[in-house]
Every structure is written in C-alpha cells, then in structure tokens.
Amino acid sequence: MPNSLILLNKVVSIVGQFPVLAGVSLQVDAGEVVLIEGPNGAGKSSLLRLCAGLLPVSRGDGQIFGFDLQTERAQVRRHVGLLGHSVALYDELTVRENLVFQIKAARGDTTRIPLALELLGLTGRLIDTRAGSLSAGQRRRAAIAILVARNPDIWLLDEPHASLDARARNILDDIILQAAASGNTILVASHEPDAFAGRTISVSGGVVVYDTAMDATPRAFKGPDTADSGEASMVRALSADGGGYHVA
Amino acid sequence: MWRDALLIAGKDIRIEMRSKVVINQMAPFALLVLILFAFALGPDRTPLINATPGLFWVAVLFSTMFAIQRSFSLEASEGLHDSIILAGIDPAGFFIGKLLAIASELGVLEILTAVGIIILYGAHIVSVLVLLSSCVLGTIGLAAAGTMYGALVSGMRLRETLLPLLFLPVASPVLIAGTRSWQSGLVGSHVSAAPWLWILVAFAVLYICVGIVLYGPMEDM
Amino acid sequence: MTIENGNGRGEVMVTEMTGKLNRWSTGRNRWINALGVASVLAIGLDVYLGLWVTPPDRVQGNLVRLLYIHPALATVALYVAFPLAALCSALWLWRRTRSSFFDRLAASSVEVGIVFIALTIVTGSLWGRPVWGVYWTWDATLTTTALLLLEFLGYVAIRRSTTDPERRARRSAIAALVAFVDVPLIQSTMVWWKTLHQKATVLLGSSTDIHGIMAVTFALSFLAFLLLFLWMLINRYRIEVIKDDMQGRTMEDAINNRIAESKVRIEDLLVKAPVSAGVLSSSTEDTREPNAGVVHTTSSRSASTELSPAVPADTFGSDL
Lengths: 248, 221, 320
What we know:
By secondary structure, chain A is of the alpha/beta class.
C-alpha cells in the first residue's frame, strides 16, 4: 500500500511535557536522500527518533514502511537504523566485538562486518582495540560501520559528519550515495549543506517550515490535508498575519 | 528468546570479565560488611555464629543491588539504549540474559563471601547441599526480581534511591527463607530447610514468569 | 482535553465509558455528595455505638472497642484498595482495555489505600500495646502489612518522579503488579517465620463473645469504612482528571509556543531567500547567528511563556 516509505501526518510528539515535535507532516519516497536542517533545538534529532519509533505519537499519525508508528513500533524498528549523537558502543568491548554483537542482535548478516570495517578504514590494530580507548572520530566510524554492516532499509543519520576528518567525510558521503543508489532511504540531520542531498527540508519549532520538494520539484501531497496545511502554505500564512496561528 | 538471552548474557559477562567491577569492588564490599558486623556484634564467637546466616544474606542482598545497578548502567547511554530497542531483541530474551549474567556474577560473589564467613566467623557446615541449593535458588529469585526493578527505574533520575525502596521490601521473602535454610545448613539447628527452599523456588519461578510476561510492555517506554 | 492518543487506539467502548465516568465524577454530582454524607453518618453511628452503646468485653475490657475500627480499616486497605489497584494496573497494561481511566483509578486507590494502611498500623499498635505488651511485634500479619505500606510508598515515589503521562502510567502499572504478586509469598513466609496475631476466628467468637449490638456495630464499621474509601477514591480520581485537564490545556499552549518558535526561521527564509532550493542551503550558515537575538524581541509569544525558545528540546526529555 505505501508508495511513501515515510509518511507523517501532523505528528505531535510530547516528551516529558514538552512538545518536541509540534505537528510534523512529511512524505519521503524510497531511495530519496533528504537533508534536514534547522537551528539547535528545532526538532531535527526528534524527527529522526520519531521515524525510528523511539518517540511517542501523541497526536496525528505516521507510517514507516507501511507500519503504524503507534501500534506497530516493533516492525518499524526492524527497518530503520539510527546513528545518533551518542555513539552506541560498549567501551569494554573491542570494535569487532561491538559490531558482531550489534549485528547478531539485529539478526543481520555478520559476513558483511569485515567489508564494513575496511570501508571505514578500521583496519589492523584498531579492530581489536577496545571502543573505550578510541578517539571520537574512530568511534563514530565504528558506529557508521555498524550501520553499513546492518544495512537497514531506512538510514537515520544525526549529524553524521561530527568529529570526522576530511577523508572520512568523503567516505561517508560516498557510502550515503551508494546506499541511496541501491534503494535505501536516507535522512540526514546536519548543519552542513551537502552535495548528496537531492532534497532539503527545514525544521524549526518542531514543525517542517520549508521543503525544497514542495517548490523546486512540485509534488502533490497525497495526505488528506494537502490543500490547507502543506508547509508551503504555512509559510504564506505566517508571513500574512505575523504569527499567532494555531494547530488544527 | 534463548538466542537473544545467551547473546545478552555473553556480552554482559564478557564486559564483566574485562572491567572486573564485581570482583574488584563488590567482593571487597561484601567482605567489609562481614568485618563491620563483627565490630558491631563484638569479638565473641557465639553471637557471630548465631548471626552468620543472616549476615550472609544481608551481604548478598546489598551486593545484588550493586550488581543490578552495574548491569543496567551498561546500557545507560542513550545510544546503546536505543540500539538495543532498535535491534528488535526479544524482551523476554533480554530479561533472561540480564538475569543469567547478574546471577552468575552474584554466584561468584557468594562463594567468596561464604569462604570469608567460614574463615572469619568459624562457622561449621552441616549440609553443603542445603547451603548450595538455597544459594542457587535465592540468587536466581533475587536476580529475576532485581532485573525487573532495575529495568523499571533505569533511565529515571532518582534510580539510585528508588531501586532499594522498591526492591528490598519485595525481596524480603528471600532474605527470610535464605537465612532460615542457612541456619539449618550451617548450625544444624532443628530448623527444617525444606519449606524455606520451597519458598525460594516459588519466588524464583514467580519472578521469572512475571519478567517474561511483563518485560515486553515495560521496555516500550 | 487530555492527550489520549498514546493509549492504544480503537476500543471505543472503553473510551466512551471513560468519558462518561469523567463527566460523571467531575461535574456537580449529588450522588457523590450523598456518598460523602452517608459515609460520615455511618462512621458517626459506628463511633456512637462503639463508644457508648456496646458493652466492654469480659477479657479485653474497653480495648475491645478497637474492634469497631481496626479490622474494617485493614480489610478495606488490604482486600479492596490494593487488589483494585492491581486490577486497574493489569487492565491498563492490557492493550484492549488501555485507558487513562484505569491509570488514574489505580493511582487513586493506592493513595487512599496508604491512608487506610497507615491507620491500620496505628490502631493495631495501639491495640497491641496493652494486649501484647509492646507497640510492635514481629508478627506475620503486622510485618506483611508494614511491607505492603512500603510497597505502596514505592509506587507513589515512582509515580512522582515520572512526568510523561504514558511512561508514568506504564511504570506505575508494572510496579503495582510486580509488587502485588509478591503478597501471597510474603504472607506465607511471615506466617512460617513467626506469628502471634489473633486469628481472625477470634472475631467470630471463639474466646470473645460477640453478640447483639456488638455484632451490629462490628458489621456497620465495615460498611462505614467502605463508603468512606469509595468517597475518598472518587474525589481523588476527580483531582487526577482536573490535573490532566489543566495539563491538556497548557499542552495546547506549549504546542502553539513551540510552533511559534519557527516564525523567525520562516521570516528568515522569506526575506533572505526568494524561495528556491539553492539559496536556501547557502544561506543557512550565515543567517543563523544574527537572527539568534531576534527570536526574543520580535516574537509575540516569548513573554507569555516560560518555555524559552533558546533551550534545546532535549533538555526537557530528562526522564528518557
């Protein structure tokens, strides 16, 4: 049924009495690379965590891969991989052990591990070094290697370039482009505009305020509320009355 | 379920073998408890020997809390917490895995504590079988209930203070039944171990079932 | 309105029932007032009968008058409040009956139960002092009751330290059930461990004669305290509904404030960039800094709210 892999319809997500997302609508198709940009605290990370089924849907509804974000979170999670701010590595385990554990836990293919390690330049001595004694950049590379080895359908990358050197950044960009070419869908939250993103969305105040897909390559929103609450019209509405509007 | 359980248990035990937190910090702590009790009760052998079973289980109970806190601190970082959830690990498997790891760490600790008691307090063993079975059963029960509460408070700001408040009252049957069965195994008094061992069995079975059923709904927070 | 979305959907019946009950309990309601009056009258009558009408006991003398308070308090706390809380917790956890109604009812039941259990323990030790010679004794029933009180207090503690409604409901429901299954075990352990307590059969007249007016007063006390419990329970529930209502209303504001944070950003996009993809990406870096100050001065909402837009959202998700 879903021709959109990610389909959010005015999702409000409340975490600890604060609406981290205040009515996000978004539609992403398979194979797209979407750059999410916006100021600090705009809701970029929250948007990614929502797509991973890690945040509650307090209002509105959303589907990832055709699975409901509220009732079928378990199935949603099977299809997504999240590279978060905090790197998911056990300090006491070596790089290889970390990868083996994570891939086995996710029921992935462990034979992809050597390839992923090599791709990220984690070779030789580094493989058997405990994650706790790696540098920040090496830790991030190990975390990316986990994602590469697991190869989920949807990649959610939160500031993936942080603490990477120029060489690693290029490798990461290549990986993203390759993954997208092979049909994976990729959302990148980043402050750095990058060549690889075909589409950019701006997030601010917990809503999507601008979406290049709405303007540069106009597409009809298939959601029920296309006419009155698309982001482009929201921009128009705001500029007209100078603020004070309310969520429906 | 068992596949995930073994994966988690293997990972936790491997981390413990590397970091040696239980051996290096909790074993000395248990020993310290024994020595402090000796100070509190006086150097006389008699009160010490009478109190031995209780002292042993109180030491075990406190060690359990440390082991639980340590076990859940492994996944305390947001990244690892998320990755466990996103990996789609079976919640019951995760519960059993944590339980196995905590129980085996406690097992090592109990052996050391028992040796300490025999040397320091000069306790006489009447029945090794009773002591051993009460330890195994009690430990599994404590680890099961403790894993439930450890997961329940993990991620809360006040977890260090909440864990004892929630866990210790619930664990009281283990303390009583463990102490009673040790009395019969150590001092060889007229206490019969059988009913107390049955309580330990009931406690362990009860909390393993509770964990398998309720761990799923709990993890989804 | 409250945020009901997180609580399993469908199951229209439960939602409808909850709605009706909420309206019923929060509005002006003469049945609730009547319940209050009835419980006060019943307790008044119980006190009158217990202190003035019934005779002192042959063995226990005037102490027997505690019979008209203590067993009833204990029964309501142990056999009504706690099982009700456990039942509601289980119903909340079961997806098909998940409703904030059960969460609130469980919480209310525990809190009122704490009052009853505390009174049970106090009246019990008042009774124990002259009869057993001590205020406290390590007797099975007493110890079990004390442990139950501790578990209740733990439940409240876990509730108080979680703010997110869904998470709070989940945590407390599990805490209640995990503690509840322990009760029979604690009970039997304590019985084997040590017991002194008067067997409940005493009340049926093995050594104490309970006859006529004493039996009536005794029975009345159960009714009186049950009514009192129900009345307190409903009122406690009412407070929960009102609290959630207020939270729902502030949540509307919070959501609108949150959206308003985006205003500056949108103006930014409109002014600096005639809407087009290329300009957008190049303008992001240099426009952010100068506009950071504008957030406070131009937006109309920053004065009306304590949620500063400068604070990143993650700060508030502290109990993640």
